[in-house]
Design brief:
By secondary structure, the protein is an alpha/beta fold. It has 13 helices and 13 strands. Bound molecules: pyridoxal-5'-phosphate (PLP). Pyridoxal-5'-phosphate binds at residues 40, 100-102, 126, 172, 176, 204, 206, 235, 237, 243, 248.
């Protein structure tokens, strides 16, 4: 048959978060109050000076194709920004700008992974990492981490998982979904392990500006003795509240940048010219709005972790960064719920449904990230939503406990 679909789709999962968000949208349409703890983007507007710069850029002609890998202004700005903020030594020739960090990761997947390759991904992981690996016909090797280790991969565990088939290891620091971030000492130990192996170390640093309690984000690119195998992925989406502009970039050795340029030249061509101009304004302009947003996130983090831990049966560690609290909800298993198939909560998917139906809280079940029993609560939402939503969740849990 000539109308069949590609076999590679057989191994790819649709987003597990869609069921919760579809039901949340349906409930909202019925007039229910929904507390949006599922979102993966800042609730702030893009700072005004960035929007103004984009408007001015349009009037100055940022309406045409640019170089595939990004305008010279943006690549230079990214190189300077990386050196300034994280001490990453980098030349514009190492930078390839794509249509968001997700696109950049996909270009990397196309350029690096092939059947027979293994790519090590510590769990809990961001949903797209394993699926991109599988789409390219390679095997995603999931490496469990524990909450006791702060959801960070231990160097000895990594050492054991690495083998001749390992093409890459993907780390995310601070992490989506756990908010965990690697301190310098741990990242250095990981780099030492990686230096002994001929494999790429891809580090997704998209949340590196959103760190709290004085945590210092350090880049693997500054620590590794095998810099030629370290790839950094970053972008403006989270730091500057610019998710809709779709600008991300990779920092790689120049020969890899050339290949990524080639891959991208056959798909999207350049990221939108006006969005690139906005990104230049974001990373070269005042960083004051970034600090303001960071401080708001930090206060919300403290609030949400406190409120989650006040719910009987819920435990939540204090994350170092990003805007997610990753809570252990296994203490709720077995509670009675009319929304559970057996009448009792049997897994995190049923807990998510219970929280949504009974309390209007839309959060993402941990099994979507390879961590069953957990739940990701985004705090990219107002303090009022955090207070009201978690008060409703607590009341729903207490009511269920009273019935148990
Ligand atoms: C860990 C991580 N990497 C990459 C991305 C993609 O970001 P972008 O908007 O730049 O595509 C996200 C977005 O949710 C993310 O959480």
């Amino acid at each position: 048959m000539s109308t069949r679909l590609a076999k590679r789709l057989d191994v790819v999962q649709p987003s597990a978060t869609l069921a919760v968000s579809a039901r949340a949208a349906a409930l909202k349409a019925q007039g229910r109050t929904i507390y949006p703890f599922g979102v993966g983007e800042p609730d702030f507007d893009t700072p005004v000076h960035i929007r103004d710069a984009a408007k001015a850029a349009l009037d100055k002609g940022a309406t045409r194709y640019t170089a595939v890998s990004g305008t010279p202004e943006l690549k230079k700005a990214v190189a300077e920004h990386s050196a300034r903020t994280r001490g990453v030594p980098c030349e514009p020739s190492q930078v390839v700008v794509g249509v968001g960090a997700k696109h950049v990761l996909f270009n990397l997947a196309l350029a690096l992974y092939e059947p027979g390759d293994e790519v090590i991904i510590p769990a809990p992981y961001w949903v797209s990492y394993p699926e991109q690996v599988r789409l390219c016909g390679a095997e995603a090797v999931i490496l469990e981490t524990s909450e006791a280790d702060g959801f960070r991969v231990r160097p000895d565990a990594l050492e054991k998982a690495l083998n001749a088939k390992t093409k890459a290891v993907i780390l995310c620091t601070p992490s989506n979904p756990t908010g965990s971030a690697y301190p310098e000492s741990e990242l250095r130990a990981i780099c030492e392990v990686m230096a002994k192996h001929d494999a790429w170390l891809i580090v997704d640093e998209i949340y590196s500006s959103l760190v709290y309690d004085g945590f210092r984000s350090v880049s693997a690119l500054t620590l590794s003795s095998a810099k030629e195998r370290v790839i950094v992925v970053d972008g403006v989406s989270k730091t500057y509240a610019m998710t809709g502009w779709r600008i991300g970039w990779s920092i790689t050795p120049p020969h890899v940048a050339k290949v990524l340029d080639m891959v991208q030249s056959q798909s999207t061509t350049n990221a939108a010219a006006v969005a690139q101009a906005a990104a230049v304004a974001a990373i070269t302009g005042t960083q004051e709005p970034v600090e303001q947003m960071r401080a708001r996130f930090e206060a919300r983090r403290d609030l949400i972790v406190k409120r989650l831990n006040e719910i009987p049966g819920v435990k939540c560690r204090t994350p170092e960064g990003a805007f997610y609290a990753f809570a252990d909800l296994r203490g709720l298993l077995g509670l009675p719920s009319q929304h559970a198939q057996s009448g009792k909560l049997a897994d995190d998917l049923e807990i998510a449904k219970f929280l949504l139906e009974e309390a209007g809280c839309a959060a993402v079940p941990g099994s979507a990230f390879g961590a069953p029993g957990y739940m990701r609560f985004s705090y990219a939402t107002s303090e009022e939503n955090i207070e009201k939503g978690l008060a409703a969740a607590k009341a729903a849990v207490e009511a269920a406990r009273a019935k148990a």
